[in-house]
Amino acid sequence: MWSFTMGVVLRNLQKVVPLRRARLRKDVNTLRHILGIQKFDLGIICVDNQRIQQINNIYRKKNVPTDVLSFPFYEDIRPGKLPCPLNRDELNLGDIFLGVEFVMKQCQEESLDLHGALTVVTAHGICHLLGYRHETEEEWTEMLQRESYILNEFNRLTGSHLEPLMKKFNQDR
């Protein structure tokens, strides 16, 4: 079908946190490789608390900043199934907004590495783009298993020690 690989559009729209975009892009490409989604486009937009709170309020009616919001291109994809695009324009998974300022504050509180945490949060966002949810405990368990698998592979390939951020079931996430 299409033999060329697509890209990650990575935009940094915040100025609060210094960001190593090359490192994040490399990590995202590793995640795409693990999931076998290299042929799909992916948008990653890094924003501050004010912007992510705005988006969270508009789309989820939650007027608080958060770590990640995902906007899938494919609305009703089943978890674990890749979309079957009919043409080149549909080789898109969607967009992920990273609340970089929010993640940075979490990292400071728990003394975690910012870039590692951004990779974990991005993996979480990609899971959402691929149909995973966590509205019920069952969905949450399924998503946590998927995230754990992705991060274990990532750790194996990169020598990192990343863990999922979602430890226990929480309806508000």
UniProtKB/TrEMBL annotation:
The keyword Transport does not apply. Its cofactor is Zn(2+). It comes from the Eukaryota. One of its GO terms (molecular function) is metalloendopeptidase activity. Signal peptide: none annotated. Pfam families: YbeY. PROSITE patterns: UPF0054. InterPro entries: MetalPrtase_cat_dom_sf_prd, YbeY, YbeY_CS. Keywords: Endonuclease, Hydrolase, Metal-binding, Nuclease, Zinc. GO terms for biological process: rRNA processing. Belongs to the endoribonuclease YbeY family. PANTHER family: ENDORIBONUCLEASE YBEY, CHLOROPLASTIC. This is Endoribonuclease YbeY.
